[in-house]
């Protein structure tokens, strides 16, 4: 953990971006947040609280803007805390304001169009704009309300250039947020996306428990089946085997699949309780990344001729082709 103060731009002030803004502001960093949501902007500007996504949590000293240029101006590290389905569109607008020497930290995990990783798509956009900024990704067991409350939290920062990952991890670590570094950016991003698929399935078990058809025994079996498939499939996609046992692997997966705060687990729970997918998604303002991740991994596995029974079974539930009980039966077999 370093004591040097850093100017940090945070693009996206959902619950995670807001939690990070609080942690880094309290540590003495200068935080410049950006949001496209006017109600979020107004709430933070007027009360220093994001009432929509993290009510009751103060953001001491954090600035907020709806202008990308303003948020990026003078930042040393640009943190992209945006959902995977919008990050590339936002970056298309932001890239012209990215300054030389700014390091970029991507928190969105998953596959972009043409089955590239989101970080790969960002790198392509940087190159097309004539930029050579350093890029890293971060993931780990980081439930936002706990992080904001000061609960000790670990995560992994990864880049193909490990020196960059180390520098970012050291600068952004605090007394309560412990960041480690690694060079498996590909594996970190793959695990960060795949864990949401498993969390959806574990949530289904919780939903089934309301009528006695689910529970912790079933959830443990589903968790194990998903982890087993991830350990095989993600290595086939290029992840390093050791990432499976890192904070970005089993650590992030465990908390996402078991915490009551996990949005993907919550979506799965609603499906297990009998809601259709559109009903489950309309029940929250949070984005359930697992739905998109499931479909992307299923498509990639099919295109590459790889076995992905866990993923395709979850997709069948999302598409309404099987019910929740049939889904979990197939998952554990």
How would you concisely characterize the structure shown here?
The protein is an alpha/beta fold and 333 residues long. Helices cover 51% and strands 13% of the residues. Strand 9, helix 7 and strand 10 (177-182) form a beta-alpha-beta unit.
Low-confidence stretches: none
Average pLDDT level: 93
Beta-strand proportion: 5-15%
The whole-angstrom Rg is: 19 Å
Overall number of strands: 10
Strand order within the widest sheet?
3-2-1-4-5-8-9-10
Order of helices and strands: EHEHEHEHEEEHEHEHEHHHHHHHH
Query: In angstroms, what separates the terminal alpha carbons?
Result: 45 Å
Report the biggest beta sheet as strand number plus sense, adding barrel if it closes: 8 strands, mixed
Structural class: alpha/beta
**What's the total helix number?**
15
General shape: globular
What helical percentage do the residues reach? 40-55%
Protein topology:
Blueprint: E1 7-11, H1 15-26, E2 30-34, H2 38-47, E3 63-65, H3 68-72, E4 77-80, H4 87-94, E5 103-106, E6 111-112, E7 116-117, H5 118-128, E8 135-139, H6 144-149, E9 153-158, H7 162-172, E10 177-182, H8 185-208, H9 216-236, H10 247-258, H11 263-272, H12 277-282, H13 289-303, H14 309-318, H15 324-332
Helix pairs in contact: 4-5, 8-9, 8-10, 8-11, 8-13, 8-15, 13-14, 14-15
